Amino acid sequence: MKTQQDAAIFLLRIALAFGFLSAVASRLNLWGSQSSGWKNFVRYTAETNSFLPQSWASSIAVLSTAAELSIGILLLLGFQVKRTAWCASILTLFFAIAMSFSFGIKESLDYSVFVFSAGAFLLSSFSRFEWSLDQFLNQ
Known about the structure:
This protein is mostly helical. Helices cover about 75% and strands about 0% of the residues. The protein is built from 7 helices and no strands. It has helices spanning about 1-25, 40-50, 55-75, 80-105, 105-110, 115-125, 135-139. Helix 1 packs across helix 6, helix 3 (about 55-75) runs antiparallel to helix 4 (about 80-105) and helix 4 (about 80-105) runs antiparallel to helix 6 (about 115-125). The protein is globular and about 50 Å long.
């Protein structure tokens, strides 16, 4: 049973990491023709945060991309998993709320943003992370 839970925690950590890193890669055109691109992302940021001044969109886009890149790398490495997963949960919860406010609840449900946030929150509730840098450093 413990091995199955360890595997589930590992897979959740890796899935969350790649979710963040894939979004960043799309903004930076690393997915080729399937990329969203930076300009589209800044425009989407302005639409998602329609309740904020549009002039803030570029700054929010840069800050969110830096946060997502950092979170993705830290989760992939398994460093400070508990803290990083909690930050991931808060970031995606803010995103889900902003999406719901600007586009309606259906959009954030369709894109499973609340599920992503809940998964990150669940990951932050564990105290042991097999196959991680945290495990290696704590030995």
